[in-house]
């Protein structure tokens, strides 16, 4: 089943590539991503919670000479990430509907290829398979930025590609070292994730490998001070690119920490948690302050992403149930909210052809639907109770507080700054004197896509257990091992 | 006297065909020459592939009083040589249509002589045979570079390559002479048994031979000729140089190195590691600023050679395996890349520069996507063929405990991304209009097939791994 979800977008990409009509490709892409989303829902509802662990495992021999296997499956964590990925990809198609006005065939093929690679990252149970998807994703993403992006698109695309690639070279070497050491100790050469995670490395080695993996994941998250590619990439990327970048790509880094760093190097992970706390707190506060002074709407949202990912990082390294569950929940929630915010920014840009806060104002009087939904997502980003963000932020702050009190205090401070820049932006864009003459409200397509996300944000805000119940078993087994 | 002629049947077949080609050339009118000789060469190479497949023994066999020794390593590299040559013929056919020359027949039969030299070189088991085959191949390539009318760049390249190549060959032959003087034999087996200590003359001889080979491979510090020659030579000839000459030189080096040189001193690892890492970095740093794609690929070839050389640090079995796999991937990528350039080239060397590729996607989406595959594969991005080559080298290095070298190579490959991405940037992201010359369908087909292989073997590398493992075990039988 998981293999079908993995390969369906690839098939869709081929169909799009060979489709003759430039207009029909949108519908093919929408259909494919929609079907993929439905299939991932099927997996979600058929996941056996009482059993836990990895389910829906498909495997086959792929490179027997190096015992690298094709092996995919989902556990609680992967499942949440899978749902998020297929959902965001499904939302990305309507966000591209009008924005992408040339080379549509290429765009939708790349989008679908990207979806396959992203799903692959979250469901791979073999280290090398994971790495292949992790890297393969770079080509379509940087092409999306580079072809349909803004003025400095080429610079941003190259920066994104080279920065992430440079980070992940250490991951590759680290993986090979890990596998070879595992092979020399147990006599069993394998890239299998489950087998490797039961292996206990000596602390000295854990320290080295922890940092090797850290660099790769930290660039992707991005953790301060590796975040400099993100504002460039976000600002220059076309709307669907930003939606996917913020919605899914950033979660790959944090997913990597949970999936690899924690089970493989638990001692080093514990040892270096304070370092991450410092970096996380710096990210939360520093980027929030940077966001306060930005003029570009997209940049504000981009910096807010870095800030929110700081919460996730601290939650992950707090090593208690609240922190980790909160972090996973916040990953999902940030995926929805930031995707929605980028969608809104894109919708405004399509109409006004500017992203500068100064040139907007008073949009609320022209576009009540847009203003209402934007209000909801702004509040969600701030962390208002009743939205899903509140659950995520609250739990991660609780986790941080339990790990070290000062971390909790500073995180809460970050929430205040977050409220400041988001509300400031909202006021300047939607209220104040109108600086524009006319503005079209959301059309049905945009309204449906955003409304769907809004429903989810509120639903999961009131009923977080719907998601968290998948995570409980995973967290328990994870922390039991530490 | 043991002749065992049937072992050399594929080589003889190519040689005889080349001579027949000379004779036919005398009687054909010029206008049919290109078509006829291209078909003829394709036929010859195609048949040779099957001859090689059916005549390569798993248990090593010798012929001509063990002047040549064949095993699956030889067989596999010959298949690779023939495949690359086959693509080269398709590319040449299109190229000769676009560029005028009086020497069409000469081009094809000299080409067949070069293929013959390469095939013999990988089966050589004796110093004189090795040298003669090396020269047959090299001289043919010098000639091929200079065959086009008004192509002063090609003639300059040919002369440069000839002068420098002769020096390289002289260095090798000095080394051979010393080895012969010390041991009284030119046969690898006798050399290995009679030279057992590392005296100064032996060391000198080894240094000369290895330097000569590094020259042929284009590794630092003997890389100076590569950019000018790659850039200047006609593109199909560059393709041949990049793929076939490199495979032949590497495999010949492996066959000489493991039985004869390795037992003498264990310090080879460090030597090759240093040369390899330096080559990898020099290659990528020099390639950063190139506007001409052929020149850029020349520097990238230097860096790839460096990466392959570092693999020799590891234990023989792992090293030979990863070198062989790398050669496979590298041959496919080089063939695809130069074939692609040749497709886009027209009179006056237009189409070789990055700026000629602006908005290639607008003119031909298929070509632009092939470009992505080719250059990303060269950069080693999964899931393309080039990634696995890099991966196996890394495994070899980590197995040998050389993590530092592994990281160094990857850092070089991260830098290399910058220039491998530039063609993609030009083809997709820059405004402009790429003017395409008329596309020759055969040439186009050949490039498309290679690109398809880059993807196919990227997703299913097991086939090549198994083939390399077979060749490895057959090769190890011969040296133990």
Task: Walk me through this protein's architecture.
The complex is a heterodimer of chains A (482) and B (480). With 482 residues, chain A is mostly helical. Chain A has a domain of 211 residues. Chain A has 21 helices and two strands. The model of chain A has no long low-confidence stretch (mean pLDDT 88). Chain B is an all-alpha fold. Chain B is 77% helix and 1% strand. Chain B has a two-stranded antiparallel sheet. In chain B, helix 1 packs antiparallel against helix 2 and helix 16 crosses helix 18. Chain B is globular. Chains A and B meet through helix 5, helix 6 and helix 7 of A and helix 15, helix 16, helix 17 and helix 19 of B.
Summarize the entry for a quick read.
The complex is a heterodimer of chains A (482) and B (480). Chain A contains 21 helices and two strands. In chain B, strands 1-2 form a two-stranded antiparallel ribbon.
Low-confidence stretches of chain A: none
How many strands of chain A? 2
Strand % of chain A is: under 5%
Content of β-strand of chain B: under 5%
Rg of chain A, Cα atoms, Å = 21 Å
Pair of chains with the largest interface and how many residues each contributes: A-B, 34 and 34 residues
Helix content of chain A: over 70%
Helix content of chain B: over 70%
- Main pleated-sheet profile of chain A: 2 strands, antiparallel
Oligomer category = heterodimer
First-to-last CA distance of chain B: 24 Å
Shape of chain A: globular
State the total count of DSSP E strands of chain B.
2
Q: What order do the strands of the largest sheet of chain A run in, or round the barrel if closed? A: 1-2
